[in-house]
Amino acid sequence: MEPVTFDVAQIEAGERIDRFISKRTTLTRSQVKKLIEGGYVMVNSILKKANYIVRPGDRIDVVVSTEESSALTPEPIPLEILFEDEYLVVVNKPYNMVVYPASGHMKGTLLNALAYHCDRLACIGGPLRPGVVHRLDKDTSGVMVIAKDDRAYYSLVEQFRKREIKRRYIAIVYGALRGQGEVKTPIGRAVSDRKRMSTRTKRGKEAVTFWKAIESLKDSTLIEVRLKTGRTHQIRVHMSCIGHPVLGDTTYGRKRTIDGIRIPRQMLHADTLGFIHPVTGQSLEFTSPMPPDMKYVLDNLRRDL
Known about the structure:
The protein is of the alpha+beta class. The chain has six helices and 17 strands. It has three domains: about 60 residues, Structural Genomics Hypothetical 15.5 Kd Protein In mrcA-pckA Intergenic Region, Chain A (Roll), CATH 3.10.290.10; about 90 residues, Pseudouridine synthase, CATH 3.30.2350; about 140 residues, Pseudouridine synthase. The strands form four sheets. Strands 5, 6, 7, 8, 9, 12, 13, 16 and 17 form a nine-stranded mixed sheet that branches. The chain has a four-stranded antiparallel sheet with strand order 1-4-2-3. A two-stranded antiparallel sheet has the order 10-11. The longest helix has 12 residues. The radius of gyration is 20 Å and the shape is globular.
């Protein structure tokens, strides 16, 4: 396999090579360490250890081993494919579906379905996350892109890193919101519960969320959300932080009812995704209409006005 090459910019110098590659590729540092130990990473054509500090102008070649790719079990799960070619696939992920296998969810995931549907997926991220360049929470529906080859993977990761990806979400949140606003509060792991994210942490990373009110509803508001950054649970954490958690979000919000209306899941949907095709250079944009369960809640909230 041809290596993927990264050139170290001045601003990136001074960082350990395992951390540098992890940021550039979304591989975990432990995965990067295995690649380095296996001789799959070279700096200026020379093998280095994981603690090597990158320098400006360093040329880093990374080759990803495909040895464990068969660990992902293909499953004939129906999918809504919005676009597909030999380089990538765009899907409309339903809610109640985990993106990739992990403890407690080894089957029935989006990647299990794609492994059955696609003739191949990118090797990066394997064995259980091949081609994954971003993700949506289990109970968040909407548009996702998955890379089918490594060239597409690195290009898409770079677009996400440079914040060149267009991402628009729609959400229904508790309380009355007017106009538009910005939430700019760092997000990190909660000290008391590592499964939760929090704005109350000393080691949080930059997170910026833009919101705009679309429609006033019964004790709630339909909003549009755009992301400058892409932290875990970012929209859910930020909206909760300003006192307007996403309807149905029991982790960062409240119980799943509002004035007798049952909320089946968190009312958050990724309705638009735009990016530059990694190979053709074409500007692509995909949209997904509001799913039926979310529309049902919206219609009931409108009737109660």
